[in-house]
Amino acid sequence: MEKGWIKIQTYTDAIRGEIDKQMLEENGIPAVLLNKQDSSFMFGKIDLFVNEKDVGQAQRLIQESESEKNGTKM
Description:
Domain DUF2007: 5-65
Number of strands: 3
InterPro entries: DUF2007, N-reg_PII-like_a/b
Number of helices: 2
Protein name: DUF2007 domain-containing protein
Strand content: 15-25%
Radius of gyration: 13 Å
Largest sheet: 3 strands, antiparallel
């Protein structure tokens, strides 16, 4: 990974990672998923990276998204 990119989240579910990545990009935050899962057995992790200048906003957006998914408000 290039300098200046920070891992902000780790997933085991590729779909959840893609949903969060897309949500960040829709909010103007470039994001990259690094899939380290074994393609045959689908185990391992998927890391979500954003630029270090976007870390705070990205974490806040993901937290808000998870709160909405769970039916709670911040």
